[in-house]
Amino acid sequence: MRLLEEKEAVFQREKELCEEKCKKLLPEIKKKKMQAEKKREEIRQLYHRYRQGKMGKAEYLARKKWEGNLAGEMEEELDGMEAEEKGLYQRMKEIDADNVALTEWQGFKEDKRELLQCLIDSIDVSTERTIEIKWKFRDRLET
Question: How many angstroms separate the CA atoms of 116 and 135, rounded?
């Protein structure tokens, strides 16, 4: 029972860490979106300046390519940040599901044998009086 409570505490701490990362990531995403939009506007302004004759064709094409590359890099960074945010939210959902399952099992007054069979692969007891529990799932603390 104590192990389940410890696992639940670990899940809760991991969820808190995910929430903290999301809170830090959100302003960065907003900032990056604004920068990308500003860069796209700069590219549009380049075209208007070219059309008005304020810059030559070669300069326009070179600057458009340069600014376009910068805008592309910003979009890639933004996509990565949004994917990270999505992954964090998905992980929080998984943690909630894991926590609910553990809480439900803790609430049962019946024999815990079925729970143990679902969670534990094997238990090794050595002659040095140590016990090693091998879980049927990947332990988040070890990875």
Answer: 10
